[in-house]
Amino acid sequence: MATIALDPNLSLQIGRGSNQHGAVIEEIEGLIKVYKDGHVERPQIVPYVSTALPPELGVTSKDLVIDKFTNVWARFYVPKSNRKLPMVVYFHGGGFCVGSAAWSCYHEFLAKLAAKAGCLIISVNYRLAPENPLPASYEDGFKCLLWLKQEAVNGSSEWWSKQCNFCSVFLAGDSAGANIAHNVATRLGSNNPYPLTLKGTILIQPFFGGEARTNSEKEMVQSPSSALSLAASDTYWRLALPYGTNRDHPWCNPLGKGSAKMKEMRLLPTLVCISEMDILKDRNLEFCAALGKSGKKVEHVLYKGVGHAFLVLGKSQLSQTRTNEMIAHVKAFLHQ
């Protein structure tokens, strides 16, 4: 099994002499700039970290290559346990355009989640838009599942697989990562990639959109430090969706006219985690209502007083409290 030594500089394109690339045509301040000639800059707003973790956490982490041709890799988190654990395939957030499995905020959160929820986590470092627009990240998620399937078929005896229950696999993610988890699950339907058995999806503040604005998108006042403003949301979708489409594309708006009917879809049991102060709140609630109305198994939790990405970016005591509550809800969902 190939391991990788992560060099964060490989995934950054910090502009020097940016004028040579022409005008900036899209920008989310501090996160991403896209130039007329297609050049992309992503300032290092969050530190990239190695797999190192405090020994007292009781979690081992390593990076493994999933697909050397597309340079997709994953960071594994395996807590100490004397029994086999459910596996969570996790996709990070970042509007499909920024973020990394090596970002310190995800490394700390997922190590904590693995330890407290009693699960093995595979955090997928998928390809980013606009260089790789949708459905590239969906394809990377699907490919990761096929890679896991092959490991299970081969009776893998890798350090991580000895503790993995391949019959209890969950797809999860936050924000754009939750969108990826949902779309990969939708593509699979009820067709389990034997011998893997998919048990459910965990969607944390799923990043959906639509041309018509919801009340929370129109009226939710966001602070300058908010992780997701309406303007940023629109920019992410322009960069991520296929050229010539709009926010009613099924990948963005699962309830839109062009989307498959929920009743006809074979979906896994779903846990949706929603934030009270998030512009996505109403859209997330509408999604849950549509699942329920279509007879799908869905449960949701609304976290009071916190906004988008509180679990990875929130530093307040309230954010930490809500994160611990969410981890407890995820644990209950995994082990029910």
Q: Tell me the structural class.
A: alpha/beta
Main pleated sheet = 8 strands, mixed
Determine the mean pLDDT: 92
Q: Can you count the beta strands?
A: 11
Query: Strand portion, in percent?
Result: 15-25%
What are the key terms here?
alpha/beta, eight-stranded mixed beta sheet, 11 strands, 29% helix, globular
Textual characterization of the structure:
The chain is an alpha/beta fold and 336 residues long. The protein contains 8 helices and 11 strands. It has helices spanning 104-117, 136-153, 176-188, 215-219, 230-240, 281-293, 310-313, 317-334; strands at 24-28, 32-35, 40-41, 59-67, 72-79, 85-91, 120-125, 164-174, 198-204, 270-275, 298-303. An 8-stranded mixed beta sheet has the order 4-5-7-6-8-9-10-11, sandwiched between helices. Strands 1-2-3 form a 3-stranded antiparallel beta sheet, with helices on one face. Helix 2 (136-153) crosses helix 3. The chain starts with 23 loop residues before the first strand and ends with a helix. Mean pLDDT is 92; it is low at 1-17.
